[in-house]
What we know:
Blueprint: H1 2-12, E1 15-17, E2 40-42, E3 45-47, H2 49-59, E4 63-76, E5 79-91, E6 98-103, E7 112-118
Antiparallel strand pairs: 1-2, 3-7, 4-5, 5-6, 6-7
Amino acid sequence: MYKKLIAVSLLTATFVASAGMLTSVGAQEQPEPSSKQFVMPIGVQCDTVGAMTNVINIKYGEFPFTTGNGTMTVMTPQGPTVLPGIVKVWANSKTWSFSITIEDPNPNNDVMCLLTSGKDLAPNQPKGNDL
């Protein structure tokens, strides 16, 4: 599914992320979008699961830290399409670099996309009402 939609999306040259469009799998209720909601075109690097895993493991020394079911919204000529996926947070326990990926849940499709990466991964420090 990813390969087909990615090919179509590349033709339209747009991937879209929007806080109001992304949903948590199994969420009971959707929050109302804020008046500041906007659509942001982004580029997402995708490859085979093996190739992407090798780069994350070998080049950055990161290994799966957490896994969950998630979604990614892509724009197609027919409009926004929500793709289910396996989301992984990868981390290097020595340098605390990290990567976040999503992969097609159908193993026959063999696609993983890098959503973001960074450094200084640390536990969230609650502030005030964040408890």
